[in-house]
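Residues pack. Consider this:
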Amino acid sequence: MTDPGATIQPLLSVVISAHDEGSQITGVLDGVFSSVRTSCEVLVVVDSRADSTAGAVVSYAAAEPRLTCLVNPGGGGSAGAIRFGMAAAKAPVIVVMAAGGTDDPQLVDELAALVRRGAVVASASRYASGASGVPAIGRGWRPFLTAALSRFAGRSLDLVARAGTCDATYPFKAYSAQFARTVAVEAARGDQIGIELTAKARRLRLPVAEIPVTFPPVGPGRRAAPSGLALARALPGYLRWYLFCFGPSLTPGRLAAHRPKGWPDASRAAAAQD
């Protein structure tokens, strides 16, 4: 007999790019499934079945039908995995989360609700009014520099370019699936996708929203991400999308003209795994 629940389409797709997380991914999945109340699917994307994350996810999925492990045949690291997951997502709203436990799953429903109310990008924001508890990591000058660059980029994009969020660089965001697929993801790094899609939304003059983040203390199974997501190491890619945000309004057709020719379409490969 066919399970009638199997035909119900989820309202939310959570996409998690993972690389050799092993059993540590279970803590992240526990947090998602215990916190998210919206009808959802969770897609964990790896580059290879040999990845240590895959076995842990497959075992977890045996008791959790909302969870799927996907293998991105095209590779491409975290950016390729996120593109692939977005192409495979069945829901109209997509939330991108980190595999390292740095994102608060209790914010997922609220981010998704902002998209359902009309935003094409909804950002968790470390710099919005009411945000607090950004985890400090590392020692020396580098964490302070990357944090300062991240804060400057976010604040200036909001104040000057009217980006709609003061934390465009934070990857923990929700997207309209239709918007994400229409504009396509070009970033070479997964942590640049947030600022890329925020910039594209701004150039198309589409609504962007945000909610403040309050980080809980870092504990077992939860790893603090580098402040500013190691912005200094990826500055050229961030700078491209930072500057792109300041341009005049574009139509979807004119936006597509900025895309590199022959840009890979992950939808066909994703459909093959359904």
Summary: Strands lie at 12-17, 40-46, 67-71, 93-98, 121-125, 173-176, 208-212. Residues 111 and 256 are 27 Å apart (CA to CA). Confidence is low (pLDDT under 50) at residues 1-5, 217-231. The longest helix spans residues 141-159.
